[in-house]
Amino acid sequence: MHGTDGPLGVSNIPDPQPVTRAFVQSCQEAGIPFNHDFNGRTQAGVGFYQTTTKDYRRCSAAVGYLRPVRDRPNLTIEVGCFVKRIAFEGTRATGVHYFNGKEQCRARAESEVIVTSGAIGTPKLLMLSGIGPAAHLAEHGIDVVANLPGVGENLNDHFGIDIVAELTGHHSLDKYKKWYNAAITGLEYMVFKSGPVTSNVVEGGAFWHSGLGTGEVPDLQFHFLAGAGAEAGVPGVAPGSSGITLNSYTVRPKSRGTVRLRSAAPGALPVIDPNFLAEPDDLKCSVEGVKKSTEIFRQPSLQKYIKAIRFPDDSVKTQKDFEDYVRQYGRTSYHPTCTCKMGSDEMSVVDTQCRIRGLDNIRICDSSIMPSLIGSNTNAPTIMIAEKASDLIKGHR
Ligand SMILES: Cc1cc2nc3c(=O)[nH]c(=O)nc-3n(C[C@H](O)[C@H](O)[C@H](O)COP(=O)(O)OP(=O)(O)OC[C@H]3O[C@@H](n4cnc5c(N)ncnc54)[C@H](O)[C@@H]3O)c2cc1C
Questions:
Q1: pLDDT at residue 215 above 90?
Q2: Which CATH number fits domain 13-56+157-332: 3.30.930.10, 3.30.560.10, 3.40.50.800, 3.60.15.10?
């Protein structure tokens, strides 16, 4: 059971687009039962997503947690800063070196350093600070503070593949790409806090079975977008027409990637290798996701709106065609995690209290400490990790 009365704003989509309702109906026509709450007892089924929004606005961690306490006298918030290195005295973390946009600064930690740079930024910062695989640090001339081979290993992410359909008319949010429609709906939102601006676009979704696994828990997740071409790298529809998109991914992929340093310069971007589809099962499951997506688009409720499925087009028929499509159009679903995993084996980076193994006064409290990728979206679970970590820091178990 869960509630919606915590610091993090959680809402139901106030008024889903008719085409999203048709998606939900089409899934049921394709054999996926309705589920009114994916975050409740049962994950399997189709329904409308809950969103981290409050009063019709996005509720980020900053809005939900920081803004209400920003006037506390014992809190200083500095924004636009870039942390270059964590400072150590022996194995004890003593603060951070950072650039505030004007000058190089140093913050001293009276009690602890809490690292929350995310699944890419955290392993990078750790390695720049001498915490990571000793041989890799040596390659870049970085002195080793702690030889932790798991830093930057075990990168887990969801590999999503989209299908796109062109609609018979302007039935999706794409109609608001026209400036006059955008102006009217913008005004509606400003005055009434209602209308399409309150939409998160990804209004509907489903969790279901590929048929390849044990069948106990869903191994596929679907995100329905009441629009097309909204995301970089995802095909759209012809200019002037409207579309819809259905994204699917394997919820518990087996492939593991890495985050490595490109150089010892703090400003250099890291080398990210998601290693998608390294495991053959991930490819098989991804193909089933695309096949199920096209099956959903072909059901009567959505067919009323669809002129043609544009991606994949009719030439994609055989298993090999689908595999090629997956390889060509698959992409990150923005859920990188697990690069500093929690655990007790040699590859673990933090213990069950989020403390970095072998070091003092330093914890990691972000998505990088997940031991394995959770079977859904990662934002709210990361905030949950941080909530738990704050209890641990205060000394509550
Ligand atoms: C485009 C996109 C869409 C997404 N959509 C969803 C969604 O719909 N639902 C969902 O559940 N999840 C979604 N996610 C995933 C979700 O945002 C992440 O899982 C979550 O933000 C992870 O939180 P984190 O604290 O681990 O890392 P982050 O939120 O990435 O926070 C890390 C912060 O550290 C900062 N940082 C890194 N290095 C340094 C440094 N050296 N110095 C100073 N600051 C530094 C970064 O700029 C960043 O602000 C999406 C992600 C993206 C990118």
A1: no
A2: 3.30.560.10
